[in-house]
Structures are given as structure tokens and as C-alpha cells.
Amino acid sequence: MTDIVDVNANISSRINLMRIVLISGIVFVHVPHDPATSPYVGTYGVLDWLRVFLGDSLFRVGVPCLSAISGYLLFRRGLDSFDYGKTLKTKARTVLLPFLIWNIAFLALAFVAQSKGISFGYLPDVVGASAREWLNLAVALQDLPINVPLYFLRDLLLCIVLSPVLAWLIKRYPMQTLALLLAYAVLPLPNGIFLKKSILFGFSAGIYMSLHRVDVRSLDRFSWPITIAVLGASVLLSLVLFQYGPDFPVWVDMLRSLTALSGILGSWAVSELLVRTNVGASLARGGGLSFWIFCTHYPLLVLFWMIWNRAGFGYYPAFYYTVPFITIAILVAAYGLAGRWLPNLTAILTGSRAGAARGAKARPAEQRAELSPQQRT
Fold it and tell me: CB of 167 within 8 A of CB of 178?
């Protein structure tokens, strides 16, 4: 029993650690720039290549990895115990509601700002948008929402709606299903109803690991080789991207997709190495912080970009290599204050993750370990 508890606690800690690390990395993916400061112009040499490595290669693994975590947690108790109706009700509170609140609030803020002549050129035209464009900006019906990173929550909700079908296929035809979804994610095929095809594959890979009882710690002894291999692949990809970007040939796009998907395995290997450190163990106790950063970082980055341009600063690398850290620091402080002063609202804004994390501290260690895999997606 103790061994089982230890395994559950380790997996739970590593999942939390992966979330905070990956989402912090995603902040670098969304740092704004204009055509003149694109890294593919090559104005700043190796600093531009490093931007490509971080934003277009290494941290692009975040979306498929987070998708895999979601699929894994959703079916951790098996297909027979899966309650579709209860799942939809729960996800409406933990995923849909935060998506709507954060995105529509930012849309309303953009409307007010543009009504006063502010933010034009930095955000889509909200004031002059058609009803169809408003619908896309508000709920990402067919295109990116105004709070761009939240497309992940939109596609994740689609995966959850389709989850019984995906689980049935993966339970009975696992390799065939995953092969088809891999082809869909990598080949130059239409996206269909998804905005990001890799989300569907990552989510399905997570389902596979749960339903087929894959021992997710079986490769831990190879953590260093896997980490080095995936990191090396990211470096090589960034060199190719820097050479061919920003308009990539089809084969480069396919290579980028494959490398991002390989990050599912690579990130899990990294989590095994980090969770044993003091910093990693501390990050693994982040609770709803990762979700808070995910939902709030883009509006803050856009605000900093507006200030930077108004101030007339010219050395873009100074912006890129400082603003993500400042953004994360501000959001960490804001999360702490919000949790202290407005705990109920903070719980709603983080899909009940904040409340769950605080409540978990009061539970005995064994009970906490058993409950930890039930964390919200």
C-alpha cells in the first residue's frame, strides 16, 4: 500500500511540475513582435536563433504535453468507471467557465480600449468587427479567440466531448487509432473542427496510457538519454527553422509537428529529473498557479508590448529576454494576493484548482496521494 501511495504521489507531483514548467515556457511562445523584429529577419544573430529555439521549437512541446496530461487524468480509473454526463458537468465548471470569463473579459477590455483609440494594431479590430468575427473572438467558434492561448481550452473541450468515442477506439484499436491521429497531426491535412491538431493526438495518447495501464515510470532510468535526445532534436529543428523561416516548406512543418509531439516523452523525462530537486518539489506544489499564468499571460504581454513601443525603445532582445520573466513574476504575486483576498473568485477563475490545492494541504499524506490524480484538467 505504501508503494502505491508513493507512486501516485510521485506521478501527481510530476504532473503538477510539468504543468508549471510547460506553461511558463508557453509564455515565451507568445511574446509579441512585429515584422521588423521577427527572429527570421536575423538582425540580432544568435539572439534571434535563440528566440527561434525557445519560442518555435523547445516550448512548442507544451500544447501536446498538456493535452496528454488531460487525456491521462480523464480515464485514470478506466473506461467502465467513466461517467460522461458527470464529466461534461465538471468540465463546464473547470474548463468552459474559466475560458469564457477570461476571454470575454479581455474582449470587453479591448472594446473599451479601442473605443478610446487605444490598442489598434496590437489586437484584432473589435469595434468594427462583424457578428461572425465577434463570435470567433469571444468563443473561438472557427478561429483563434482574442486571448490567443485559450484556443487550447477550446480544443480541449472538443476532445472531452469526443472522449467516449476516442476511448472506445483506443481501447479496441489502439495502434491503428493512434497512427491515424498521428498522421492527422503531422501531415498537411485540413484541421477540421480543431484549431491545433496536435491537441487531439496528445489527448488520445494520454487516454491510451490510462486505458492500457502503461507504467509511465518504466522509462525513468532512461531520463537523461531521453532528455538529451529531445533537447538535441529541438536544437536541430531550430537550426532548420532559422534557415527556412518564416515561410516553411511542408516538410519543415511536418518536422516541427513531429518534434513537438516527441516532447510528450521528453517532458516526462525532464519531470523525473526535476522533481527530485528542491526547486522542482516546490514548483510541484503550485496548485492553480499554472492555470492562472496560462489564462492571464497573453493580455499582460500585449500591454507590455504597447508600453515598449510607446516608450520608443529599439533593442528588441531586451524586451524578449526580460518581459516573460517580469510577466511570470507579476502573475505569481497577483495569484498569491487573489487567493488571499478573494479565494472564492480565484477558485472560479482557476476552474476550482485553487480551492482544491488549498484543501489538499489539510489532508493526510496518504489520502492526498490517492486524491492527487483527480486534479482537474
Answer: no
| Number of domains within the chain | 1
Range with lowest mean pLDDT among 220-229, 290-299, 351-360: 351-360
Long-range contacts of 271-277 (CB under 8 A, 24+ apart): 271/14, 271/15, 271/17, 271/18, 271/21, 272/14, 272/217, 272/220, 272/223, 273/223, 273/224, 273/227, 274/17, 274/21, 275/10, 275/13, 275/14, 275/17
The residue behind cell 499524506 is 365
Q: What is the mean pLDDT of the chain?
A: 89
3-class SS of residue 120: strand
Angle of helix 174-186 relative to helix 197-211, nearest 10 degrees? 160
Amino acid, res. 287: G
Domain limits at 70?
2-374
The C-alpha cell that represents 216 in the structure block: 509511465
Consecutive H or E run containing 7: helix 2-29
